[in-house]
Amino acid sequence: MSEQEVITLARKGDQAAFTILVQTYQCAIYNLCYRMLGDAGEAEEATQETFLRAHTQFGRYDPEQPFKPWLYSIANHYCIDRLRRRRIVWVDIDDEPLAGHPALREQCMGPEDAAIARERSADVQELLAILPPKDRAAVVMLYWYDLSYQEIAQATGATVSAVKSRLHRARTAMAEALRQAPSYAGALQQLARPASLAGAA
């Protein structure tokens, strides 16, 4: 079945079809939540909440629109709500990178990717933590998931212009952090502009 066929069945209440969607996207949603929240336990909870909300709100999904940005929007709004309830947003760099449920780790990362993540994840998370939540969300969706500006706008409920402004502001902040702490250079290599957006205004 195509993804659209699976979505159609899931919207009609087919639990097996919805399970396929969970299996397809749980890794991406978990990593998005982890990058946003910086805590493995909170990321697991946010992932579960995202799929719960998707299941209960499926009637609001427009099948004419891409599914991925809609699902990301649920995760994004939930994570931002959680961040707003924090007085101080900072990442515990002693936390195991991408820790959490073993099944999620196994599905998300191969041995080589896991090694790279262990080396750089702490610095990346520390850089992300300096950004306001909405700017952080835009960065994560662009650099980790290669979403277009339009898709990020759909996922965050912003305009394309606002997305570009957030990304520019985030790049400026991270560049300043790099000047102050050159040790971040390795982490910033992960934030090279996606090739698919090269030349985008």
Pick out the low-confidence regions. Answer: 87-107, 192-201
Radius of gyration: 17 Å
Oligomerization: single chain
Tally of DSSP β-strands: 0
Overall shape: globular
Mean pLDDT: 77
Describe this structure as you would to a colleague.
The chain has 201 residues and is mostly helical. It is 68% helix and 0% strand. The protein has ten helices and no strands. It has helices at residues 3-11, 15-37, 40-56, 67-84, 102-108, 111-129, 133-143, 149-156, 160-180, 185-188. The longest helix is centred in the N-terminal third of the chain and has 23 residues, at 15-37. It is globular. The model is unreliable at 87-107 and 192-201 (pLDDT under 50).
Tag the structure with descriptive keywords:
disordered C terminus, mainly alpha, single chain, 201 residues
In short:
With 201 residues, this protein is an all-alpha fold. The protein contains 10 helices and no strands.
Give the helix/strand layout:
Blueprint: H1 3-11, H2 15-37, H3 40-56, H4 67-84, H5 102-108, H6 111-129, H7 133-143, H8 149-156, H9 160-180, H10 185-188
